Amino acid sequence: MAITTSTLGYPRIGKNREVKKALESFWRSEITADELLQTAREIEEQGWKTQAEANIKKIGIGDATLYDQVLDWVIRLGLIPARFQAFSGLERYFAMARGKEGIAALEMTKWFDTNYHYLVPEISADIKPEANFEDFLATVKRAKNFLGERAIPIIIGPVTLLRLSRLEGVELGEVLTQILPLYKTLLTELKALGMVEVQLHEPALVFGNAEQLKPHYQTAYAELSQANLPIHLVTYFDDLGETYPWVIELPVSAISLDFTRGHNLDLIKTRGWKRDKRLGVGIVDARNVWQIRPDKIFPLLSEIQTLAPEISIQPSASLQFVPYDASREKQLPEALRNVLSFAEQKLQEVEFLDRTLSEENTQLEQELTEDLIANNWDAFQQFSPANERVKKQLQALTTDTFKRSLPYTERIQKQVKLPAFPTTTIGSFPQTKAVRKLRSSYKKGELTQAEYQAQIDTHIAYCIGLQEGMGMDVLVHGEFERSDMVEFFGQQLEGYAFTVHGWVQSYGSRYVRPPIIFGDISRPHSMTVREFKVAQSYTEKPVKGMLTGPVTMLNWSYPRTEISRQEQAFQLALAIREEVADLEAAGAQFIQVDEPAMREGLPLKQQRWNEYLSWAVDAFRLCTGIAQPQTQIHTHMCYSEFGDIMESIQQLDADVISIEDSRSNNETLMQLTNAGYSHQVGPGVYDVHSPAVPTLKTLQENVQKCRQYLPVSQIWVNPDCGLKTRNWQEVIPATRNMVQAALNLRQEQESTTVKIPVKFLSKTGIEVENQPQAENE
């Protein structure tokens, strides 16, 4: 039997976040474009070297990016919307990614069911594709010199690229006809460079409605096969489902399937395999951090071996979704660290599986390795026993636990009365260099807890004074004590573990360290009450308590695999429920429970939606059901396509939902309206991921647009997401304009005059205009 090994992509941010640092230095004009590109190349080549040293035989290359790989292919194919045509080079690239003054960036949404955000291509009838593959071909040449025939170029497949695009006045098939010759030219050039194979990534094949794409795939691959370069068709994140029979007939030399999610093995067993094709066996989970279990994985591989004569052992997807190296996490308990597997460990697992199946390991080597892994897992089980108190809490749940004591129409009458177009923000304010240094000093033990809290309180005071002076209606404390909306809470919960170096890319230069759920979740103490009390003491206006919801906590963590995601979500909900009660007791009249990842976790096949949405909605209602009628529950959702789950959003029964709407041309707002959403809505009126400061006129127009879809009584005014990644020089004028826009419309609505003072002294005693402005993150 022929066995090889492959990778489908690798982390591209640098073990020490070198690409992030270079990007942000470039944006601040501290380094040149050449220096930025050099850093990116060095990190890319380090990844190649690591994979080569792990003895991977087919190394995926060309997936590295300065911001987003989808944007890279949009640029290479010349799919440039008119508003960016005046720019060129990196200026155009980053204008499309981040926007510029008066020019909106491309929409951003989630890459399938992951927490990675991609930029959505906009393709209209007036766009004429024009290829420029110079940068990609230069990368391929470097890789060939570095890796020889092991270098396998990675290309986003044409149908997936178009399926993920926003098509305006043009059909997918029309654009496909235009770009296929460009793809074919690229494959021809790759063959001329000596490439022995190319990976075309087509994860759109696992969507539940992918059957509709059949004629497009058949057309595309009939033409691309004419380049006579062997094509490795790559899928991941789920099984092929009903597309399986015709996908395996496509004229390609290899097809990769994900065996960590979905039911691909059942498809092969019942539908057969094309024995002239290599089967890419995605058996090492590229989206979770747990070590393989040989007792479970070898029986599966043995069965696959009987079905396909030629296989490739590989991760289930790109390794961009996991950190670099678990061995660096020396602060973790050994029993936990020994069962973790990050990118480098997953390469080792691929090689171990390959050597075992190829019978290259001696029997002694095999036994020693399997014994070591078994002992690691035994030690971990002793390290993480069940929490009986949590189990009893789950068993005691009743129907009433999952609902508010009064329906929305009754409880809304008991809540704080606010003027028309009430204003607020999503929660976070700038995480400046000073704030990050403060948290770092505290972690290093350079500050006592009292010293740290005193300085955090100074930032809170400034933030409250700023909002109060602007005339904001519902204030937030700014979240200066929080590095990340999941990490902050997880660090205070039992059952969570945290890395030091475990960064993964969320989008652009935005990286996160997903925590690891290793045991039953419980809350030993309150998590946010102190900062809420401090903020509320500075103002007579209401301050929102700010929490992260259970589904987002789960979806943005690496979950356990031995119990269900539903049970883990309910454990998290119980912990957050206790925090809601404590905030209420501390005087909070507004509590926001963010669920931006609700849509992200939706299964890719519709037949599995109901089960997920049922427990996801229940988890949210479990943590908010304890709130008294007079407490207004807010939630926030962003950067996902929510049209599919509007009924479930209504079932959350939040009093107010704030949404990302600035990059989607009011699409999400229209979806809410069309679904008959009856509660209050805060459409994001400006894009916080762009450095451009929106003008008062633009913001006023954006709020006015909301009136086309909602009655005034339902409208809140807020940014589309948190403000932590912006600097004060951007945030202050943007939020001031936002509040003034609302006040102007309120004046129109109520015939009153409200002015924002130029200078003010709040309860904090801080004159805001004299406050030094901080640097950007």
Describe this structure as you would to a colleague.
The structure is a single chain. This protein is of the alpha/beta class and about 775 residues long. Among the domains are: about 60-235, TIM Barrel (Alpha-Beta Barrel); about 415-605 and about 615-755, TIM Barrel. It contains 27 helices and 21 strands. It has an 8-stranded parallel beta sheet. Strands 17-18-19-20-21 form a 5-stranded parallel beta sheet.
Low-confidence stretches: 752-762, 764-777
Number of helices: 27
Highest-level CATH class of one domain: Alpha Beta
The main sheet orders its strands as 1-12-11-10-9-8-6-2
- Mean pLDDT equals 92
For the sheet with most strands, the description reads:
8 strands, parallel
Principal-axes geometry comes out as globular
Radius of gyration, whole Å:
26 Å
Q: CATH topology of one domain, anyone?
A: TIM Barrel
Query: What percent of the residues sit in helical stretches (DSSP H or I)?
Result: 40-55%
How much of the polypeptide forms β-strand, as a percent range? Answer: 5-15%
Strand element count:
21
Q: N- to C-terminal separation?
A: 53 Å
Descriptive labels:
TIM Barrel; 21 strands; 8-stranded parallel β-sheet; disordered C terminus; 5-stranded parallel β-sheet; 777 residues; alpha/beta
Topology of this structure?
Elements: E1 2-5, H1 18-27, H2 33-53, E2 59-61, H3 69-76, H4 89-98, E3 108-110, E4 117-119, E5 122-124, H5 134-147, E6 151-156, H6 158-163, E7 166-168, H7 172-192, E8 198-201, H8 214-224, E9 231-234, H9 244-247, E10 254-258, H10 264-271, E11 278-284, H11 294-305, E12 310-315, H12 334-337, H13 343-357, H14 363-383, H15 388-395, H16 408-411, H17 433-443, H18 449-470, H19 487-490, E13 494-497, E14 504-507, E15 510-512, E16 516-522, H20 529-537, E17 544-548, H21 550-555, H22 565-585, E18 590-594, H23 609-624, E19 632-637, H24 646-651, E20 656-659, H25 667-674, E21 680-683, H26 696-706, H27 728-750
Parallel strand pairs: 1-12, 2-6, 5-7, 6-8, 8-9, 9-10, 10-11, 11-12, 17-18, 18-19, 19-20, 20-21
Antiparallel strand pairs: 3-4, 13-16, 14-15
Helix pairs in contact: 1-2, 7-8, 17-18, 22-23, 26-27
